[in-house]
Write a sequence for this structure.
C-alpha cells in the first residue's frame, strides 16, 4: 500500500509543477501507467515488488524537473486573435448604433446606443462564464441540455407576446423584451453534443440524429408561428454538422449510405414543404426578389434598398433618386435593427461596408482555421456549430442589406442592435473560445482513423450490408 | 557503454520520430524499443520522454489516442503525422551532414583507430 502511495506521491510532485490543473489527470494517468509498466519489467527480471517500484520511480527522473518541463508545454491556449476580433465586432456594433441612434428622431436621444452598451456588458460577462465552464459538458450530458432547451422553449412560448401573428417576445422584468425566436440559435451547439453521443451507433445513430433534429424544429414551428429563418438556420447547421460527421467517418459507416440516410428524408420533406410554400407567400417573395416592384409588400423594401445602394459612393453620404423626398429614415424601415448596413452604406459610404465585411470574414476564416486544428471530435463539432450559426446569420443579414431579402431578417451577430442576439452570440463565442483553449485535452474514447494502416477499423466501413445492429 | 547525455539530447526527437515511423507506440514501449535497438546504448529517461512527446504533439508532429485493446490499462499511443514525417526527413538529413563532418574531423586527427 505504501508503495502505491509512492507512485501517487511522485505523480503529484510532477503535477505540483504544472499550473494548468486541467492537464493533471491526463499526465498522472500516463505517468502512473509508465511506472507500472516499468515495475512489471523489473519484477520479470527477478526483483521483488518493493524494489521494483522504487527503481521504476527512480528511472523516471526528478519530478520537479519533469513537472516544470511539462508545465512549459501545457498552457491554456487562449485564442487571442478571436478575442480581439470579437471585441472589434462589438466595437463596430457600438459605433454603428451610435450613428443610428443619432439619425433616429422618434426615440429619446441615444436610446438604442445606451441599450446596446448594456447588452454588450451583459453579453461579455456571459461569454466569460461560458469560456471558463468546461465545454465537454455538451458531450457528457447532451440529452439533458437538449431537453432543458426544449422545455425552456415550450415554456417561453406560453409567455411570448403575439406580434403580427407570430410569437416573438417575452417580457422579462428589468431586462425588458427578449426575442424568443432567437432561442433557436443555441440549438445547433446542443445538437453537436447529440451527434457526438450518437456517433458510435452507426446508421441508427444517424437516424436518431434526424429524429432529434426534428423535435425542436416541429415544436418551434407549431408554437411560435414565425421565425422561419431561425428554423432554416437551425436546419442548415444540423444538416452540415451531420454531413461533416459522416464524411469524417465519425459514424463509422459507409459514406454513400450514410448520406443517403440523411438526404433521402431531407429531400422528400423539403420537396413537400416547397410545394406547400410555392402556392403561398414564399412564391410572392421569390418573385419579389427576382423582380422587385415598389408596389408589392416585399417588393417595396427590396426596391428601396437597391435604390439607396445604387446612389451610394465609396466615401461620404450617397444620393437618393429624386422621388425620395425627406429623410432616409422615412423610406428605409428598421435602420436600427434590420437595415443598419444599408443605412451606413448610404450615410458613410461603401467604406463602412468594406470594413465591417473584412472583420466578419476575418472572424469566420480564423475561426474555421482554428476549428480545423482541433483533433478531437467533440471540439470539432462544437466549434463548427458555433461558427455555422455565426456565418449563416451574417450571410442572411448582409444579403438582405444588399437588397436580396430571400428570408425574413436575422440579426448580424454582435453588430446589429438587439440585446438577445448579442448575449446569445457572445455565449456561443465563449463556448467556442473554451474549445480552442482546452480542446486538445479532450480524449475521444475511440480512435479516429483515416490512415489505411489500421485495417481493423475499416471492417465496418467496407461492408455493403447495412448494419443496424449497432444499437448498444 | 553509457554515453555522454548531451550527445543524446540533440537527437532524441529524431530517434522518437524514427521509432514511430513504422508503428504507433506508447511511452514505455518507446524506451524499451530504443534501448533494444541500440543495444542498451540509449537509455532514455521517462522524465525526458514525456515532455518531448507532449511538445511534439502540440506542434502537430504526433497524434495520440487511447487504446485499451489487449490490456487492462488504458494506454496512450502516439502516432506520427505527415508533418512529423517531414520533420524526421529533415532531422535525418541534418544528422547525416553532421555525423559525416564529425567523422571527417576525427579521421583527420591523430590516434583515431576505429571508424
Amino acid at each position: 500500500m505504501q508503495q502505491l502511495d509512492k507512485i501517487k506521491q511522485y505523480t503529484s510532485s510532477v503535477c505540483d509543477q504544472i499550473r494548468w490543473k486541467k492537464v493533471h489527470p491526463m499526465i498522472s494517468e500516463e505517468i502512473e501507467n509508465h511506472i507500472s509498466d516499468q515495475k512489471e519489467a523489473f519484477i520479470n527480471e527477478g526483483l521483488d515488488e518493493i524494489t521494483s517500484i522504487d527503481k521504476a520511480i527512480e528511472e523516471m527522473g526528478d519530478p520537479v524537473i519533469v513537472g516544470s518541463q511539462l508545465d512549459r508545454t501545457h498552457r491554456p491556449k487562449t485564442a487571442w486573435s478571436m478575442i480581439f476580433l470579437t471585441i472589434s465586432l462589438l466595437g463596430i456594433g457600438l459605433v454603428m448604433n451610435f450613428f443610428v441612434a443619432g439619425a433616429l428622431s422618434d426615440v429619446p436621444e441615444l436610446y438604442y446606443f445606451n441599450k446596446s452598451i448594456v447588452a454588450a456588458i451583459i453579453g461579455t460577462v456571459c461569454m466569460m462564464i461560458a469560456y471558463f465552464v468546461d465545454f465537454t459538458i455538451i458531450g457528457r450530458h447532451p440529452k439533458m441540455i437538449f431537453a432543458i432547451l426544449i422545455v425552456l422553449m415550450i415554456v417561453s412560448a406560453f409567455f411570448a407576446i403575439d406580434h403580427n401573428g407570430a410569437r416573438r417576445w417575452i417580457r422579462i422584468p428589468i431586462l425588458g423584451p427578449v426575442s424568443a425566436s432567437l432561442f433557436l440559435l443555441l440549438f445547433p451547439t446542443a445538437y453537436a453534443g447529440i451527434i457526438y453521443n450518437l456517433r458510435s451507433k452507426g446508421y441508427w445513430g444517424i437516424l436518431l440524429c434526424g429524429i432529434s433534429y426534428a423535435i425542436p424544429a416541429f415544436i418551434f414551428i407549431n408554437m411560435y408561428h414565425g421565425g422561419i429563418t431561425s428554423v432554416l438556420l437551425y436546419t442548415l447547421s444540423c444538416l452540415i454538422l451531420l454531413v461533416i460527421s459522416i464524411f469524417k467517418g465519425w459514424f463509422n459507416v459507409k459514406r454513400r449510405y450514410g448520406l443517403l440516410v440523411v438526404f433521402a428524408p431531407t429531400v422528400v420533406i423539403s420537396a413537400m414543404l416547397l410545394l406547400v410554400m410555392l402556392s403561398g407567400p414564399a412564391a410572392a417573395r421569390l418573385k419579389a426578389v427576382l423582380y422587385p416592384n415598389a408596389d408589392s409588400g416585399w417588393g417595396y423594401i427590396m426596391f428601396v434598398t437597391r435604390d439607396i445602394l445604387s446612389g451610394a459612393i465609396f466615401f461620404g453620404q450617397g444620393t437618393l433618386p429624386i422621388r425620395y423626398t425627406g429623410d432616409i429614415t422615412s423610406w428605409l424601415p428598421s435602420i436600427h435593427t434590420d437595415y443598419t448596413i444599408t443605412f451606413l452604406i448610404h450615410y458613410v459610404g461603401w467604406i463602412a461596408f468594406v470594413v465591417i465585411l473584412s472583420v466578419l470574414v476575418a472572424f469566420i476564416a480564423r475561426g474555421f482555421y482554428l476549428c480545423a486544428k482541433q483533433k478531437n471530435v467533440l471540439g470539432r463539432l462544437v466549434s463548427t456549430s458555433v461558427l455555422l450559426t455565426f456565418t449563416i446569420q451574417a450571410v442572411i443579414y448582409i444579403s438582405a442589406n444588399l437588397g436580396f431579402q430571400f428570408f425574413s431578417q436575422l440579426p448580424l451577430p454582435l453588430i446589429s442592435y438587439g440585446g438577445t442576439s448579442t448575449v446569445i452570440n457572445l455565449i456561443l463565442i465563449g463556448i467556442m473560445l473554451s474549445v480552442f483553449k482546452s480542446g486538445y485535452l479532450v480524449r475521444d474514447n475511440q480512435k479516429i482513423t483515416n490512415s489505411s494502416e489500421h485495417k481493423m477499423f475499416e471492417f465496418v466501413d467496407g461492408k455493403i450490408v447495412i448494419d443496424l445492429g449497432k444499437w448498444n | 557503454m553509457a554515453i555522454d547525455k548531451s550527445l543524446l539530447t540533440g537527437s532524441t526527437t529524431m530517434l522518437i520520430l524514427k521509432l514511430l515511423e513504422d508503428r504507433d507506440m506508447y511511452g514505455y514501449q518507446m524506451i524499451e524499443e530504443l534501448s533494444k535497438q541500440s543495444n542498451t546504448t540509449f537509455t532514455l529517461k521517462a522524465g525526458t520522454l514525456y515532455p518531448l512527446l507532449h511538445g511534439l504533439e502540440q506542434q502537430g508532429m504526433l497524434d495520440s489516442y487511447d487504446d485499451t485493446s489487449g490490456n487492462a490499462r488504458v494506454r496512450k499511443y502516439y502516432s506520427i503525422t505527415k508533418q512529423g514525417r517531414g520533420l524526421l526527413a529533415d532531422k535525418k538529413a541534418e544528422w547525416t551532414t553532421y555525423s559525416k563532418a564529425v567523422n571527417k574531423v576525427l579521421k583527420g586527427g591523430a590516434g583515431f583507430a576505429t571508424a
